[in-house]
Amino acid sequence: MTPSPGRSRAALTLVGLAAALALAIVAGVAFGAVRIPPAEVIAAVSRALTGHGGGLADAVVVDLRLPRVLLAALVGASLALAGVLYQALFKNALADPYILGVSSGAGLGATLALAALGTSYAARAVGVPVGAFVGAALTMLLVVQLASRRGRLDPTSLLLAGIAVSYTLSALTSFVLVYDRETMTSVVFWMMGGLQNRSWQHVGMLALMFSAGAVVPALFHRELDLMLLGDERAGQLGVSVERFKLVMLASASLVVAGAVSVSGLIGFVGLMTPHMVRLVIGPRHRLLLPASVLAGAIVLVIADLLARVVLAPVEIPVGIVTALAGGPFFIWLLVRKEHRR
Asked: What domains does the chain contain, in order, with CATH numbers?
């Protein structure tokens, strides 16, 4: 059988996104305070994989830049995956972890963990991810409860509840920082969103959390398609709606918690990426999920690269870069939505 034009286009899109991500990773490692030729980057990685690495250039590539760039890709992929899930479950084009307050909840949970356990390696490796996950999950449940009207979610109430909860949790986080001044400086810069001084341990931890959170949506992409038809219709077609929502929300909360625990608050990636991808390949989640994951990784790798080179040697928090891009995009979505009414 000859593949349909739609499938061919989707396959080409996935291949193109994978190639673009590879190029973005090489560029992210090559450019910085000291420029390293892309060929030397590839050679340094090859030497490290074969156990023949050595020298200052190899150390800069393998121990400093490569884990940071791979972590940026994983954070972007996590936020984009969460954005796809929230937009499908709530049938709201403006839903994303940042706007719904989930990122702020994860941030508060991580901050409380740091304040309670200190800034030791054990606290950062275990306490911060656990605190971030608990904060993200509880925040999502609270926002859903506030936005529910007679068992149904109202899209406008969902956004309003998310924004209100987000501001409240941000204020609580600021209060904790003022109360515990010893951790204030490190946490303030962490809350702006950044990937400085990250290591392979952070990459491994986030890769594990992302894999655990992504496997269920990948297996149940058909049910995500059915959720777009509405809760009642999805239930008629065999989806256990409430249970399915809880499982998907848990998956989304897990990947958001992982991203926030290593990078702080980075907004709008989960909002922008699914929309850009959906315009190209359509709403079917079998393709939308992997394409959004790849695109989210590309977006944050490029954003982190810009954060490092625009004002070099001064480094901009990557959360500022994504906010500068995401703010106008959010306004465009609002205007577009109004024109469609």
From this structure: 19-340 (1.10.3470.10)
Q: How many CA atoms lie within 13 A of 66 on its CB side?
A: 21
Integer angstrom CA distances of residue 51 from 44, 67, 76, 199, 294: 10, 17, 30, 19, 29
Under a CB-based contact definition with an 8 Å cutoff, are residues 70 and 25 in contact? yes
Residue 49 CB neighbours (<10 A): 10
- The strand pairing partners of 153, in sequence order, are 148
- State pTM to two decimals: 0.88
Q: Is the pLDDT of residue 133 over 90?
A: no
Share of the chain above pLDDT 90, in %: 29
* Helix extents (H) in the chain: 5-30, 38-49, 56-59, 66-90, 102-117, 121-122, 128-147, 155-179, 184-191, 200-219, 221-227, 231-236, 241-263, 269-281, 285-309, 318-340
CA atoms within 13 A on the CB side of 138: 13
C-alpha span between 287 and 300 (Å, rounded): 20
Give the closest residue to 72 by CA, choosing from 305, 271, 289.
305
Rounded Cα–Cα distance for residues 140 and 252 (Å): 10
Give the number of C-alpha atoms closer than 13 A to the C-alpha of residue 312, restricted to the C-beta side.
11
